[in-house]
Amino acid sequence: MNRHSGKSPARRRTRGSREAQRVLAQAVKTAANYRPSPSPFGDSENMAVKVACVFGPYRNRDKWRVIYDEGDRRLSKVFATYEEAQAVVETMRASLSSQAKRAIGDAVAEFLAEKQKQGLRPLSIRSWADRLRHLDPSASLASIQPRDAQALYDRWVGTFAAASHRAYLRYSRAFFAWCVERGYLRANPFAGTKPVGQPKRGKPQLRVDEARILLAELMDAAERGEEQALGLALQMLHGLRSGEVLKLRARDIDGNGTRLCVAMEGGKTANATRTLQVVVPALQTLLIRQKAGRRACDLLFGHGRARPGDYLWDYLNRCCARLNLPRVCPHSLRGMHATFAVQDGASAQHVAAVLGHGSSEITRRHYIAPGTEREAQARSVAAVLLDQGPSKPADPSPARGIEQAIAVLRALSP
């Protein structure tokens, strides 16, 4: 018989295992919900995180004590027998070791799976995965201390543009905050890392003559059956997002090619769903031809398969290189559309409606080239002072922005 108890060893091990699971669950729960108060001696979130430990068993009169040390506080539990206490210690140490060694890649996979269960769209899931791929998936969560997080962000700052490295920091901070909520970590190592730099607003845009050259090339290529060229022409003339172009279905070409139904199944924002008027006859003809032979719900582009954004990006890069034009991305064509429309007299509110923005402030800050509205206002004042004819009443239709953008680009030869 064991000197610590008169009970059989098998019974003591079983009881000890059950008690270990109960105590462990309670310890993890309290640790996950615990938030230490600010320290008067420094910022506890930026200090090194002390790994939780289990000590014991220690004799406590005729019982045995186990201590769970979280660094900022201690929890203790007394057990009747040495075997029960030892079983709790071994189980908790094994669990803490497993949590401390949990790989970042495994935690990211669990995090993304939970986001998917919450209803996050596949595009947003991919965005999260792309932002978090700069974390070493093989490293353990506990290995990332505040100083490591700062060093990692400093490396991003030296490699990426401000908008990118600030996004990586924002997403990484949110991910590690989730790890704290799950009880995998006691503190967020990125909590004290401050973003630096100012992201650039908007993207480089083509000038009017350059846009005419590109549009002429795209329309000719679309006539030859190159569908990427047709999609990019839609972005130039109607300000669509790349994702909106690639999600168009055959039934979205309506009114014999004169109406374009955009994001009818929902888009990036609540304002993305809109109907635009197609007024260029050549574009109407191309859209009708692209629709022909497809079922109503078939995708209009991508040969029936969903395509990533670089399906248009790569094609545009090749066009710009072949035409000796500045390299621009498809999304900049959307901003160029906004700039040309405002230059020709459309209001920012009308352009925002055409682009599917909820606020004209977004259009001003990120799409319309700086100074464009001031130039348009100056021309209006000059027209009044020089008596160049009565000004036309404002057309409240959002399609006005499209018509004016086409008026600028319609002369296809430079």
Task: List the keywords.
414 residues, mainly alpha, 7% strand, disordered N terminus, disordered C terminus
Mean pLDDT: 75
- Give the C-alpha Rg: 31 Å
The major beta sheet can be summarized as: 3 strands, antiparallel
Dominant shape: elongated
Please report the number of helical segments: 16
Strand content: 5-15%
Q: Which H/E pattern describes the elements?
A: HEEEHHHHHHHHEEEHHHHHHH
Structure description:
With 414 residues, the chain is mainly alpha-helical. Helices cover 52% and strands 7% of the residues. Strands 1-2-3 form a three-stranded antiparallel beta sheet, covered by helices on one side. The chain has a three-stranded antiparallel beta sheet with strand order 4-5-6. A hairpin with a 4-residue loop joins strand 4 (253-254) and strand 5 (259-262). Helix 3 runs antiparallel to helix 4 (122-132), helix 8 (227-238) crosses helix 10 (281-291) and helix 13 (348-355) crosses helix 14. It starts with 8 loop residues before the first helix and ends in a 5-residue tail after the last helix.
